[in-house]
Write a structure and sequence with these properties.
The termini are far apart. This protein is an alpha/beta fold and 335 residues long. Helices cover 42% and strands 11% of the residues. Helix 5 links the parallel strand 2 and strand 3. Helix 1 crosses helix 2 and helix 6 packs antiparallel against helix 7. The chain has a 7-stranded mixed β-sheet with strand order 3-2-1-4-5-7-6.
């Protein structure tokens, strides 16, 4: 990167984008990136000792990331060659899988070829592998993980199973095709963590809306850009331009989303029913919902206890936390 007074040289130490874990080659129409899912899990405070449930799991990103955390599997385990054999892509793969052949960018830098660095890398992988083996003893199968999910879409449930196996997790995931309104906590579990990213129209409308905006206004924006003077600091200019674009896209997308929901009474009614279902069936649970709809708590008719601002790409979202209280038993008159 060059400016009038400075030259900056960047070295790519990652190679392929780090969110590409090497297993997520099947997705629904609006997937969540793996690194964002992992970060959200950390925000919730979920621990492997707790039950985790996603009633709208889609292709399983939240649950697979959680299982890898519980089993101490490093996010880059596949590209580091820690499994021996790479995952085989499905016939529905939407992007090439990252494999051990890709490795990391730093492995192609000259200092890495030194014997001391090679030994250090092998030592790090051996230590990580030993921890993985210990966790496998603690969680020998998918049932022991306490991680489960469901989805109304049979195709997405099948994708979840395929992604789980490509992530080389034990057995098959605990999941089934079911409407979220009929979901129930796992047997004998009175407290747990529910984490979901509702797919009921939200992300798809936003994605389409942004695409239409670009198609409609692209020429005008490009003309004005070409006429502008070259900024002195291109890096700072690009950074600020990206921020402003993200804010503008988020506002416009949210307006379209809210307009659609106002016209879709079925969606509004679903949210009302789902909120009541959470109160009836998941007392004692902490429920986390990632959404771009800032009015979601009102639609669920549940007061949130916390809201965390997040960005899903350029889209501004909120991670809402709802503390579901146990229902009090009706007093029994013994007279």
């Amino acid at each position: 990167h060059l400016t009038a007074t400075h030259a900056t040289i960047y070295l790519d130490t990652s190679g392929e984008a780090l969110f590409k874990r090497g297993w997520h080659d099947e997705k629904g129409d609006a997937p969540l990136k793996e690194n964002l899912a992992a970060g959200i899990l950390s925000i919730t405070g979920w621990k492997p000792s707790q039950t985790l449930f996603d009633p709208m799991c889609g292709s399983g990103t939240f649950l697979i990331e959680a299982a890898q955390m519980a089993l101490a599997i490093p996010p880059g385990a596949i590209r580091a060659g820690m499994y021996g054999d790479d995952a085989k892509p499905s016939r529905l793969a939407y992007r090439p899988l990252v494999t051990s052949a890709h490795g990391f960018g730093f492995q192609r830098l000259k200092p890495f070829n030194e014997t001391a660095e090679q030994k250090r890398w092998i030592s790090l992988k051996d230590a990580a592998h030993a921890e993985m083996m210990e966790k496998r003893k603690q969680f020998p199968d998918s049932e022991s993980l306490g991680i489960s999910g469901g989805d109304i879409n049979e195709r997405l449930v099948a994708m979840f199973k395929g992604n789980w196996q490509r992530a080389q997790l034990p057995g098959l995931p605990v999941t089934r095709q079911i409407d979220a309104l009929a979901s129930k906590p796992p047997s004998n579990v009175k407290e747990g963590v529910m984490l979901l990213n509702p797919p009921y129209g939200e992300r798809l409308v936003i994605k389409g809306g942004r695409g239409q905006d670009r198609a409609a206004g692209g020429d005008m924006e490009r003309d004005s850009y070409e006429q502008a003077e070259e900024p002195e600091d291109r890096y700072a200019f690009n950074l600020e331009t990206g921020r402003q674009s993200a804010k503008r896209s988020s506002r416009e997308s949210l307006k379209k989303l809210q307009a659609q929901e106002e016209q879709d009474p079925k969606f509004v009614e679903f949210l009302r029913q789902f909120g009541q279902h959470l109160k009836d069936a998941f007392g004692g649970w902490n429920v986390f919902v990632l959404t771009a709809d800032m009015a979601l708590p009102g639609q669920l008719r549940i007061k949130e206890s916390k809201r965390t601002p997040l960005f899903n790409g350029p889209l501004e979202c909120r991670l809402f936390k709802f503390e579901m209280h146990q229902k009090r038993d009706a007093a029994v008159d013994l007279k």
